[in-house]
Amino acid sequence: MSSSAERRLGDRIARELYRSPDYLDDAILGDYVQGIWLRLMDAARTRGELSPELEERYAWDVLLGRDRSVNAFALPGGYMGVHLGLIAVVSSEDELASVLAHELSHVTQRHIARIISRQSNQAPWLLGAMILGALAAASNPSAAGAMIVGGQAAAVQGQLNFSRDMEREADRVGYSVLTQAGFDPRGFVGMFEKLQQANRFNDTGAFPYLRSHPLTTERIADMQARQQLMPATPARHLTTVHAMMAARARMLANPEVDSLRQALAQAEAPAYAGLSQAQQAGVLYGAVIAARGLREFEAARRWHERLQARVAHDPVAAYQARLLGAELALTTGDPRRARDLLGASASGPSAQQPRAWVLLRANVWVQGGQAREAAEQLQVWLAGRPRDAQAWQLLSAAYTAQGRTLQAVRAEAEAHAARLDYAAARDRLKAAQELARQGGAVDHIEASIIDTRSRQIESLLREQALER
């Protein structure tokens, strides 16, 4: 199976995942996971595991899922799925990196393409539907039944499972990539133990493909043996930043009222005093999100002040606390407070700035009545990241605030295209073309761009029709 065909299959699966209500585009958690992911990709490139062809043709996108299960999975074409439950349960970024390194190695070693190629009597798109059905089974088994039907389902599912040899290869390559990237290899052993325990107590009988880490004592022993060959180094403890990100994952994965109340109670409990500084920061971070979710904004501000005081000594954690405070200020309609927290040291986005800062900053401009500045900032950002759907949606809001309806509709279309929903993008582009035909003060350059993009989207839709 060619890398191009695998990418097209991955796009088709990702398009359905983007539509899922469990898909979460959270810029703060996304920046955290992406930072680990990019370090691993650099290491794989250095080791020669990531070829220039795969790097160019694959998506290399990480999709977050609002799911409390401990799971991550690789998809065709370089897409990676990470459940919030995984981020919430790991004890360190080293453990999270070990899972990502394992799944990255499935991609770089082209395990998925090799499995699909074996099933020569099945169309790749049918196999793609089976993968989607298996993913749906995790949260809604009845929905999976609508996607996996017929007597061939069990046989096809068997072909999707990674073989033991492929799992061992992903372990071996992933371990080397992890250490090359500078992460503690003990994260592999700790993560394996957690996954084994999670599989033992939380096995829902889901399809085997979802058990993306079918652990054996042999594999755990292999990682332990590899660890003994490494030089002795001090054990790494829970970092403040990871404790905060794990708390965020827990709160976003379970935003129910009982969960929010429990998070507040944990921050007020006597046991809080006995926690480490990192654990206390995580508890306070969760309390801010919980109070905001309950719309107890004054309490949320108080918890945030305590959080800032707790993490003031750690520049990275303090930055994360400021981002959370800016989110809270925007929720309460206080863009000035959000602007102060984000800082005004940078006039516009650059490749070095985190996505969360750029998007929050743009929100500040829009809410503060400075839509023109927001649009200029987002245009610069999107010039290098045209697949950022959330940024396109913000740009549409900025254009709307300026009364630039034609540009706003085109930005909406680009947001749909970024999530591979070309049918919706075509509809919005047609609406933009109709607006342009109505006359008036039309931006002819923008109208020309819309016509060009409309033809490109139509071409992509025809390709999708041929794939079916």
How does the SSE layout of this entry go?
Layout: H1 3-19, E1 23-24, H2 27-47, H3 52-57, E2 61-65, E3 72-75, E4 79-83, H4 84-89, H5 93-108, H6 111-118, H7 124-137, H8 141-147, H9 153-160, H10 164-180, H11 186-201, H12 217-228, H13 240-253, H14 257-268, H15 277-293, H16 297-311, H17 315-331, H18 335-342, H19 355-367, H20 371-384, H21 389-401, H22 405-418, H23 422-437, H24 444-467
Parallel strand pairs: 2-4
Antiparallel strand pairs: 1-2, 3-4
Helix pairs in contact: 1-7, 2-5, 2-19, 5-10, 5-11, 7-8, 7-9, 11-12, 13-15, 14-15, 15-16, 15-17, 16-17, 17-18, 17-19, 18-19, 19-20, 19-21, 20-21, 21-22, 22-23, 22-24, 23-24
Q: What can be said about the biggest beta sheet?
A: 4 strands, mixed
Can you list the strand order of the major beta sheet? 1-2-4-3
> Number of DSSP helices?
24
The number of E-state strands comes to: 4
Describe, in plain words, how this protein is organized in 3D.
The protein is mainly alpha-helical. The chain folds into three domains: 3-228, no CATH class; 240-342, Serine Threonine Protein Phosphatase 5, Tetratricopeptide repeat (Alpha Horseshoe), CATH 1.25.40; 355-467, Serine Threonine Protein Phosphatase 5, Tetratricopeptide repeat, CATH 1.25.40.10. The chain contains 24 helices and four strands. A four-stranded mixed sheet has the order 1-2-4-3, with helices on both faces.
